[in-house]
Each structure stands twice: as C-alpha cells, then as structure tokens.
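Title: Prediction job returns without error message
Component: structure pipeline
Severity: low
Priority: P3
Assignee: unassigned

Description:
Job completed but the reporter wants confirmation the result is attached to the right record. Sequence as submitted:
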Amino acid sequence: MSYRINDVMKLCCELSANQQIQTTVKGSGKGAVAAGGLAFAGGLVGGPLGIAVGGAVGGLLGCWLTSGQFKPLPQIIMELSPQQQQKLYEDIMAILGEIQWTDLAQLTALVMGNANLKQQLTGALLGYITKELQAEVHYVD
C-alpha cells in the first residue's frame, strides 16, 4: 500500500509541475502592507518624492518579509506529513476509482493520456491545497 501512496504523491507532483503551479502560504498580505504603509508614510513626510522612496523601501521590505513563502507545488507535496499524504491519497483515489497500475510510469501514462481524468485530478489536488493547507495557488507564466 505504501508504494501506491508514493506513486500517487509523485503523480500529483507530475501534474502540478506540468501545469507549473506554485503556492504561497497565507501571509503575502504582509508584503503588501509593508509596501503600502511605507509609501503612505513617505508621502506624508516627503510629498510625491516621499511616496516613491517609501514605496521602493516598502517593496524591498515586503519582499524580505515574504521571501521563501512561494514554493513550487511539487515541493509542497513532498513535504506533506504522512497524515496529509494519506488524506490527499484518499481524495485522489476517489477519482481514480478502480484503475489498476503496476508502477508510476504506467499510472502517469494512464492519467496524462486522459484529458478528463487529468483535469479531475488537478482539480482535486488544487482543492486539497486550498482547503486543507489553506494555501493560495499561482500559475507560473
């Protein structure tokens, strides 16, 4: 059974890497508050030039506050606890149903070759990430 969970986790990684999905934990608002707050304070002190300087400094501070919070979804999946992996596995298996596979390559081929199944699994994965992990999802351009 353990190898099946590993296969499903790696399939989820493949799906998310294929879609180039990144996630961020709640907290990106800190960066926005820092940038906006310092721009406002700069405007009060230095007028229009103060807004520009405050915004630039606030943007750098916001970048520093949120650094490391944006992660590729495959990295998030591989860092899940065993309990979280089990929950994600159950969600994915509810869609896969009775599909049988012998190894990861076969499972990946079965899913990637079926656009409807791929879409359902991606939806379940994103639902899990947003609901269970309370993370925001971003697509890399």
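Comment from assignee: result matches the submitted record. The longest helix spans residues 28-66.
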